[in-house]
């Protein structure tokens, strides 16, 4: 409940649960003295005194009894780090192949994770994964070629495209970190804030369409990324000796960052928005246009949607808040969550609104237990009305009502398309985002020869931009020869599938994901054949090696989440347009026994769907999990049909039997092998005609 007075949309709280206090800012253990009159809104989570609610030394209790407010170990490391410098700066100078625990936490803010190869026994072979920061997934020609070179010279020879439109470079040794970081920075790239407790890469639709709404969404994503970029210089101090190699920021970004008219900033701090403590946990933002849900808009801490008038002119933005994927097995108080509607803001206010949301999380997100530190738990605890009321204090206005939006669609942006400026773009499917081998060599040759810029998609794919029409045929031919096929020649199951890297390098992995999904998809395709589903029918499948949800498995129609060695938790009920949260269906299903679950589910989907267009996700939600579990438990196999030959493929029995014998050697049937041979032949003959 709020009361408005004075200027329109100015709001002052009269909710007795919201108490406005001032505090004296941060008091880090090092010599830097910071003073601020920032106002905090410390509203307790169900009166739990252990919750840390501010970025400064906690507000003293109102009683005379002194209590020590609990903080996580990472909060203390951040406080003592001199703005993410110490002890990382010292650890990088040692001869050891790794850095200590404190430096391991701090290097995340610089865009790197310390890892070791878990396949190897004996002494740990440490290396570092670097993740870039590419708002909208934009990658310049120069940066792509640099990343390609670095992968060969200092990495494991591959590039990994991520679900947040960035590169990951694996296998970099500690002694090479500065060389690699310097090369990225000098190529106008960055890894700053790609990991750590701050705003991560800002997503936007990757398509380089020359349309007002798409261009405005992408510009907004870049401005939000700039607004929330750390300002204290620790990144450049560490890697390029303090030299800042960046372009000038838009004036509206500088103005919004410096504005402190509603108590959002630490005025005397090198980090006006973040302070010494930064945010309680990672923070994710996505921007898109109506209908285009290529960014999984509801899975972000903030989802920003362009709202245009009837003439296509952008007028403002709808805001969703509180999405997030991560959870912990067997801990029901952790959960994935979809964002919900916060309200609408005019376009000139978007940076101030985003900043107000970030500050609300900064001041009130839990800092005692990192499992509950994401903003989704704050909103879940408070409720959206209370959250909106507190955000409005930092925003200085009331949010307008959320504008009506059309239905969301998943858009892959794969294949050939007109950009709208006379040029073309070509979206290419990359299995699990791993660019390696002949594909890597061919992509580099094309990107270098034609001086192309690229975009990375939120589905781990890549888009080649600004292609002249005369280049289409030779580019298509070269791509096909390297196995980079147009989407109509890629198995539909693969088109929407995603997996996280998982083993062997991710320290959180419980079981396989990227290395396991190719075989899982082949087995699902075989089940489709067995139960009579058509080749062009598909299901959104996502696999992660742990419950943290990097590949967003909780939005999939079929999600596999590692819950033990060679074991998965199965999630069902997501939808193709990424607007419904999946639910846990079964636990501890061994990888070799997946067909025992898949066969009955897909068989009854084919047999019992209400219409031929009812998706697998909609089917599982309509049937209900209790009924589906009963069908799985009683499954004895599909009804056997009378054997017949596919006369569309085999003109005579002898040919069929010969192909069938060859197919058995590859654990396939004759029909599968014939389809595969035909598809590969057509692809090799593809000459680029038509989109």
UniProtKB/TrEMBL annotation:
GO molecular function terms noted in the UniProt entry: 4 iron, 4 sulfur cluster binding; DNA binding; heme binding; metal ion binding; sulfite reductase (ferredoxin) activity
Signal sequence region: none
Chain segments annotated as coiled-coil in the UniProt record: none
PROSITE patterns: NIR_SIR
Domain Nitrite/sulphite reductase 4Fe-4S: residue ranges: 224-399, 495-634
Subcellular location: Plastid, Chloroplast stroma, Chloroplast nucleoid
Main location: plastid
Keywords: 4Fe-4S, Chloroplast, DNA-binding, Heme, Iron, Iron-sulfur, Metal-binding, Oxidoreductase, Plastid, Thioether bond, Transit peptide
Family of the protein in this entry: Belongs to the nitrite and sulfite reductase 4Fe-4S domain family.
Function, as annotated: DNA-binding protein that binds to both double-stranded and single-stranded DNA without significant sequence specificity to reversibly repress the transcriptional activity of chloroplast nucleoids by promoting DNA compaction and possibly regulate DNA replication.
Name the record gives this protein: assimilatory sulfite reductase (ferredoxin)
Biological source species: Citrus sinensis (Sweet orange)
Lineage per the UniProt record: Eukaryota, Viridiplantae, Streptophyta, Embryophyta, Tracheophyta
């Amino acid at each position: 409940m709020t009361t408005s007075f004075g200027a329109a949309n100015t709001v002052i709280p009269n909710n007795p649960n919201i108490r406005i206090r001032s505090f004296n800012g941060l008091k880090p253990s090092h010599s830097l003295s910071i003073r601020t009159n920032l106002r905090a809104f410390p509203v307790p989570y169900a009166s739990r005194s252990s919750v840390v609610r501010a970025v400064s030394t906690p507000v003293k209790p109102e009683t005379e009894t002194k209590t020590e407010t609990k903080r996580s170990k990472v909060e203390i490391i951040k406080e003592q780090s001199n703005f993410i410098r110490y002890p990382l700066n010292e650890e990088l100078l040692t001869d050891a192949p790794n850095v200590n625990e404190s430096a391991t936490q701090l290097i995340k803010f610089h865009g790197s994770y310390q890892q070791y190869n878990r396949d190897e026994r004996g002494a740990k072979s440490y290396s570092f994964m670097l993740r870039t920061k590419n708002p909208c997934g934009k990658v310049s020609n120069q940066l792509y070629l640099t990343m390609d070179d670095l992968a060969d010279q200092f990495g494991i020879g591959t590039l990994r495209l991520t679900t947040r439109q960035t590169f990951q470079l694996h296998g970099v040794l500690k002694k090479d970190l500065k060389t690699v970081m310097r090369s990225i920075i000098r190529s106008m790239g960055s890894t700053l804030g790609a990991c750590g407790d701050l705003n991560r890469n800002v997503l936007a639709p990757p398509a380089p369409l020359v349309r007002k709404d798409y261009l405005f969404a992408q510009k907004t994503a870049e401005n939000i990324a700039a607004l929330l970029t750390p300002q204290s210089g620790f990144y450049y101090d560490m890697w390029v000796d303090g030299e800042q190699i960046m372009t000038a920021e838009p004036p509206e970004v500088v103005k919004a960052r410096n504005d402190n008219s509603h108590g959002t900033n630490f005025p005397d701090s090198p980090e006006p928005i973040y302070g010494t403590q930064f945010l309680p946990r990672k923070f994710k933002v996505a921007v898109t246009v109506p209908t285009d849900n290529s960014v999984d808009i509801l899975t972000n801490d903030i989802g920003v949607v362009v709202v245009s008038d009837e003439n296509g002119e952008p007028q403002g933005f709808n805001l969703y808040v509180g999405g997030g994927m991560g959870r912990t097995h067997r801990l029901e108080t952790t959960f994935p969550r979809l964002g919900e509607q916060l309200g609408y803001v005019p376009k000139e206010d978007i940076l101030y609104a985003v900043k107000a949301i970030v500050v609300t999380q900064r001041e009130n997100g839990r800092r005692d237990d990192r499992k509950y530190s994401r903003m989704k738990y704050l909103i879940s605890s408070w409720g959206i009305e209370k959250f909106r009321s507190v955000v409005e204090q930092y925003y200085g206005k009331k949010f307008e009502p959320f504008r009506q939006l059309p239905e969301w669609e998943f858009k892959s942006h794969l294949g050939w398309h007109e950009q709208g400026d006379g040029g073309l773009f070509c979206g290419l499917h990359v299995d699990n985002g791993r660019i390696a081998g002949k594909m890597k060599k061919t992509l580099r040759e094309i990107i270098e020869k034609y001086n192309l810029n690229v975009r990375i998609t939120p589905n781990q794919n890549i888009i080649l931009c600004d292609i002249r029409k005369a280049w289409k045929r030779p580019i298509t031919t070269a791509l096909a020869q390297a196995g980079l096929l147009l989407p109509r020649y890629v198995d539909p199951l693969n088109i929407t599938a995603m997996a996280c890297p998982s083993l062997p390098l991710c320290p959180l992995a419980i079981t396989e994901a990227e290395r396991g999904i190719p075989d899982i998809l082949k087995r699902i395709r075989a089940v489709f054949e067995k139960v009579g589903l058509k080749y062009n029918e598909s299901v959104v499948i996502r696999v992660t090696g742990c419950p943290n949800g990097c590949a967003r498995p909780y939005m999939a129609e079929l999600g596999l989440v590692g819950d033990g060695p060679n074991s998965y938790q199965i999630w069902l009920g997501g939808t193709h347009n990424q607007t419904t949260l999946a639910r846990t269906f079964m636990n501890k299903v061994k990888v070799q026994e997946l067909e025992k679950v898949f066969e009955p589910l897909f068989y009854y989907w084919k047999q019992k769907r209400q219409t031929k267009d009812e998706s697998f996700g909609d089917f599982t939600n309509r049937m209900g999990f209790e009924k589906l579990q009963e069908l799985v438990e009683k499954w004895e196999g599909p009804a056997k049909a009378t054997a017949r030959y596919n006369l569309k493929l085999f003109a005579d029995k002898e040919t069929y039997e010969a192909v069938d014998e060859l197919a058995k050697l590859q654990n396939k049937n004759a029909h599968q092998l014939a389809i595969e041979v035909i598809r590969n032949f057509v692809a090799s003959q593809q000459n680029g005609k038509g989109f």
